[in-house]
């Protein structure tokens, strides 16, 4: 009988919702010390970190909490519209998030990190593009929820 191997999702490999919440709570604790980012997030919802963790968890193969309870992908797109984010801000957002991933002990194996960074690069560049759109003038913000997986590396680090 052949052995059946189950490939964990990126969400499971990351440590599920507790790990992603730890990551984003700590990240948004650090944002006010960042001159490039603090004004962007000055008015953020008090549950912003949990919402972003739920969104990213769903993208990485976790439960559909953001779609079912927080307005789904269209809501996330609308939250970026009209904010005129710069690439300099995006780069700081990325590097601060990756520094925080190390700080909170998110898995740092090559397989997980390459897939995770791939998603963040893609998503953060779209956030900047969407931030140049005018909320009032854009009717269609529907797009399926992105789904990210291991990609070319094919599965978790095996040692
Ligand atoms: C993969 C990249 C990103 C993801 C997954 C993401 C995710 C999200 C989500 C889910 C929300 C809505 C939260 C809610 O429902 O309350 C949101 C809002 C927001 N995002 Fe992002 N985002 C990304 C990149 C960025 C970047 C690069 C910036 C700025 C440099 C940014 C700035 C904001 C701001 C200012 C809000 C509104 C916060 C508020 O006032 O409530 N995002 N983002």
TrEMBL record:
GO terms for molecular function: heme binding; metal ion binding; oxygen binding. Heme binds at residues 51, 75. Keywords: Heme, Iron, Metal-binding, Transport. InterPro entries: Globin-like_sf (IPR009050), Globin/Proto (IPR012292), Hemoglobin_trunc (IPR001486). It comes from the Bacteria. Pfam families: Bac_globin (PF01152). This is Globin.
